[in-house]
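Document type: protein sequence-to-structure record

Subject area: structural biology

Format: plain text, a pair of labelled lines:
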Amino acid sequence: MRENKWLLCPKYVMLPNQPTLWLKGLASPPAAATIFFGANDAALLGRNSERQHVPIEEFKENLKKIVLHLKKCSPNMLVVLITPPPVDEEGRMEYAQSMYGEKAMKIPERTNETAGKYANQCITLAEELSIPSINLWSKMQENEGWQRKYLSDGLHLTSEGNAVVYKEVVRVFNQAGLSAPSMPYDFPHHSEIDSENPEKAFTIQCS
């Protein structure tokens, strides 16, 4: 979320300098929300992507704040935590070499072991808060060849990887009595958002 300037539309509002994004004037709030963070937070200190690093304790606390905020706004909302996916360190190195040649990083900026630690914090928090979770880190590694099948560059998901996420979300929603395919979007797809003028996409969506 951008900081302190989005007035999305009459249904949505972000208050200046407050982590509050919520629905206004609707008879019923969203039925469900998924929270999918950790891949960037797990970047290692002292390496190329260290600016994205979030200490693991802070990562867990941030997730907790998001969940509790959503539950405060709507106690009956289904909130699902999704762990970061696994990391293919070899794939990350190959991608860096293909992009930057001799200037590429010499050691991976992320490791699968560290991503797993962040995933464990996500699962632990879900258990503490009695909410469902999806262990994407473990699920993807159940299949041989997951590195190339599910990850395009050792980190970002391929279409097959996204299909795993979709299947798992549908499964959890079904268990809660919700039909994911029939649920409308509250926000525009990211491809419709102009980074230079993000308000425009929301205005069109909410008009």
Summary: Confidence is low (pLDDT under 50) at residues 1-20. The chain has one domain: 32-201.
